């Protein structure tokens, strides 16, 4: 039987196709885990949101350091990046912006939960994909098909319906969406190793987490250490924080922001379904209409993407 000897062009096509598939897997895993984390945070409902955030940062940092300590190449890449700081200044700038964006996103969400803006926080999850797609088109110059444009409009209509029901400009939701969108955008420009970048990212915010934990410890308001079960959950929260971020970073390097924008609907959809079937929240007719618009937009986008692949 003749042996297939692929040309350089065919090898390049296979490589790009496999990279795209890996991108789909990484992004899907990250948003799936983010969606189901609602169940995990519900198990920590007795702990303040700020303490949960601080432990996510602290134990996430420790988890990353442990992984790097076991990999010589990662450690070398980490120290080399700092050694050539002037050359890599732009990369440090992108990482710094990413760390600020994700930290601000977490803080805004915590503030929204603590002060009763849960509806706006939920709305932010739906606005985020639209912001990512717009940033992808305007800044990264992602190509956009007619079907993708139509699906974007449908998704935007779905968000408008929720906004109309809410009754005013949802500044909290917009802030959540913008910080998340900026985080995704900066990840497109960070070319350092995923784990190394994550380590530097956590280093930039770990001082704030430690200061807060020291503060609540001195005021006897820390839950950590008071119960073994809660303590283990808080430690694991760091791991569950780092894993989806690592997956997201790997996926964002292989996919366009426009495509990532639609995958972001996975998280709010899971949250929506958990609210209906697990937490038994009442869903209004307007919310069902909005949800239908968003799913219809996904159907149009999927059809458009499949059609594009078939033509190729």
UniProtKB/TrEMBL annotation:
Pfam families: EamA. The chain crosses the membrane at residues 21-41, 53-71, 92-117, 123-140, 147-163, 169-186, 195-216, 228-248, 260-279, 285-303. InterPro entries: EamA_dom (IPR000620), EmrE-like (IPR037185), RarD (IPR004626). The keyword Membrane applies. It is found in: Cell membrane. The keyword Ribosomal protein does not apply. It is a multi-pass membrane protein. Keywords: Cell membrane, Membrane, Transmembrane, Transmembrane helix, Transport. Belongs to the EamA transporter family. This is Chloramphenicol-sensitive protein RarD. The lineage of its organism: Bacteria, Bacillati, Bacillota, Bacilli, Bacillales.
């Amino acid at each position: 039987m003749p042996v297939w000897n692929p040309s350089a062009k065919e090898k390049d096509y296979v490589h790009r196709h496999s990279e795209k598939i890996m991108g789909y897997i990484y992004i899907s895993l990250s948003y799936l885990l983010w969606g189901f984390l609602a169940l995990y945070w519900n198990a920590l409902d007795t702990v303040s949101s700020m303490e949960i955030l601080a432990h996510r940062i602290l134990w996430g940092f420790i988890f990353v350091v442990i992984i790097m300590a076991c990999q010589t190449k990662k450690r070398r890449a980490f120290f080399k990046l700092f050694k050539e700081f002037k050359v890599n200044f732009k990369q440090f700038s992108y990482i710094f912006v990413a760390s600020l964006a994700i930290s601000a996103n977490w803080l805004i969400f915590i503030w929204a939960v603590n002060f009763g803006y849960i509806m706006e926080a939920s709305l932010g999850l739906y606005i985020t994909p639209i912001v990512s797609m717009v940033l992808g088109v305007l800044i990264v110059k992602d190509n956009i098909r007619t079907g993708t444009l139509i699906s974007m409009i449908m998704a935007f209509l779905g968000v408008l319906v929720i906004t109309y029901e809410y009754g005013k400009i949802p500044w909290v939701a917009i802030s959540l969406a913008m910080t998340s969108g900026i985080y995704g955008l900066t990840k497109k420009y960070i070319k350092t190793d995923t784990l190394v970048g994550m380590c530097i990212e956590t280093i930039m915010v770990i001082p704030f987490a430690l200061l807060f934990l020291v503060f609540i410890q001195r005021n006897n308001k820390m839950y950590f250490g008071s119960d073994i079960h809660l303590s283990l959950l808080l430690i694991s929260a760091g791991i569950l924080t780092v894993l989806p971020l690592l997956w997201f970073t790997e996926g964002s390097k292989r996919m366009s922001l426009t495509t990532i924008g639609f995958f972001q609907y996975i998280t709010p959809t899971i949250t929506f379904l958990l609210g209906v079937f697990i937490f038994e929240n009442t869903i209004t007719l307007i919310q069902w209409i909005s949800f239908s618009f968003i799913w219809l937009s996904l159907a149009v986008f999927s059809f458009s993407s499949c059609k594009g692949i078939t033509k190729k």
